[in-house]
C-alpha cells in the first residue's frame, strides 16, 4: 500500500538510472565504480576537484552506456 498524497502533491514516477563515479588521481591511478539508483528524473552530472584527485559523477539512462563509459575510464 502506498502512502497517501497530501493536497497539491503528485505521485512521482521513479526511474532507474546508472551512476558512474570515476576518480582520477594525480599519480595516474584510476578508480571507477557503477551504481544503480531510482530517481524521478535523471540527476545532473557533476565533478569535484581535490588536491590529489578529481572525481566525476556521470549519470546514464542505459546500463550498456554506463558500463562502456566505466570501462573507458581505464583507457584514459
Task: Characterise the protein shown here.
By secondary structure, the chain is mostly beta strands. The protein has one domain. The chain has a four-stranded antiparallel β-sheet, covered by helices on one side. The longest helix has 11 residues.
Summarize the structure.
Strand 1 and strand 2 form a beta hairpin. This protein has one domain. A 4-stranded antiparallel sheet has the order 2-1-4-3, with helices on one face.
The averaged pLDDT comes out at 90
Number of strands: 4
Low-confidence stretches: none
Helix content: 10-25%
**Helix-strand makeup class:** mainly beta
Write out the strand line-up for the largest beta sheet, numbering strands in chain order.
2-1-4-3
> How many structurally independent domains?
1
User: How many distinct helices?
Assistant: 1
Q: What is Rg?
A: 16 Å
Which H/E pattern describes the elements?
EEEEH
Beta-strand content bin: 35-45%
Give the termini distance in whole angstroms: 48 Å
Which geometry do the CA atoms define?
Answer: elongated
Described by strand count, sense and barrel closure, the largest sheet is: 4 strands, antiparallel
Furnish the topology, listing elements before pairings.
Blueprint: E1 15-25, E2 30-39, E3 46-49, E4 53-60, H1 63-73
Antiparallel strand pairs: 1-2, 1-4, 3-4
